[in-house]
What does this fold into?
Amino acid sequence: MSPLKRIAYFFGLPILLIALWYALSFGSTNFFVPKPIELAQTLWTTWIGERFVDDVLPSLGRLAVGLFFAIGLGIVLGLLIGSTRWLRNLLEPLLEFFRAIPPPVLVPLLMLLIGVNDSMKVAVIISGAIWPVLLNTVEGVRAVDSVLSDSCRSYGIRGFARIRYFVLPAVTPQIMAGVRQSLSIGLILMVISEMFASSSGLGFTIVQFQRNFAIPEMWSGIVVLGLIGLGLAIIFQFVERRVLHWYHGLKEITHDS
Amino acid sequence: MRNQRSAAAGPKAKALGLGIGGIILFFLIWEATPRLGLVSDRYLPPASEVLGRLGQYLTEAAFWKDVADTMTSWALGLVIATVAAIVVGLIIGSSRFLRRATHTTIEFLRPIPSVALIPLAVLIFGTSIESTLLLVVYASFWQVLLQLLYGIADVDAVANDTAKSYGLGPLARVRYVIWPTALPYLMTGLRLAAAVALILAITAELIIGTPGLGKQIALTQSGGAISSMYALVLATGMIGVLINLGARIIEKRVLSWHPSVRGEVVL
It folds into this structure.
């Protein structure tokens, strides 16, 4: 495909949609729908500067810390539970139950146990985002190739080396699949924890705009959240390609043959 | 075959026993933590008290009304999202041009967290059920659509060409070539969407205050009825488990004909 065509495909529909939005909102005085230019201006004036430092950065910080612990703990516990059969059998139904609890209901619960502060919000993110990673890791460890596992054993590879060079690489595709789900759950919980109980942060600010009928500002907040989601997706894709390049390569080869 | 099964029954029963043991152990630890004073029972009531409250809830009509409200918005949202995603997915998936042209737009809209729409929902619909529906539909739509698009991309080109040369029209090809290939993916998408829809339904009730279990949780929390709050959280977990189990059973039923035993979802 020629580069020109590729660019046309890439930007074609988005440009068309924005043009349509522009045309439809041109003459309208609808209070709820801002005009594109107005929105872009609001986006700039509302979020760049003080508010970025006061509201956006702390939110992102909590999200990062929460996700870091959720993914780290998820992998470590998942490896532990996955490789010990009795532990897995003991905990599996319980973990299924915890995963099934809709994470937002943990917000009032953790508010009670921890209080309204940063650690509560981080705890909310961890308690919701850990399950996809944890359960995927357990599932992955259980499904490792038994021939490879036996080979490792007969070569005397055990303990840390076994985990580092055999289990972890074998499970990475599953872990990454879990991480992907964790990212979106973490973002949702970041917003909810701030909407429910907070006096700062992105979620709080957006709800505040809505209560004050600051409609363009509210829309711009939605756009900021969308951009954060998009940013996370892009970072994830980059990391996944790095970490799993061998896996995608392998899949291509097996598909071709 | 029969020998295998009876041989497998032993460890299976043992695993089940251990699993039940794990749950009992969890409740024992929960019971002991406030009783020993590790956490104040004002914040964490003993398990027996919460379970008692849950039992009491099960006899109350108001509780079942809340469950019905939550499940109604869940089911309605899921159906709307699925139908919309199937229609859109089949249209986009049927043409290379559309698939390419919509790619960026989908990749941009999909990661927008559905909770970002909460203020919009409040503004337009207030605390009526439509608010919940907006969030549920938005969140589950992408789950189904993306899986369906993966599925359609997976259609065997030779099979499709063969169908074409045998004179199958576009509709017949959708029915006999594309649909069977995409169905496993669609079921995966549905299973994921079912879980996400519950999360969003409860979230909307919790934050916006549309009627349902989530609203009740927020009310009990602010009213200081702590054991009631824990009981309701347990109830939502049970609903979640039932939905997950139900989705898996339906998936197995619908795909019983499918030759390959698909590995767990990669998403």
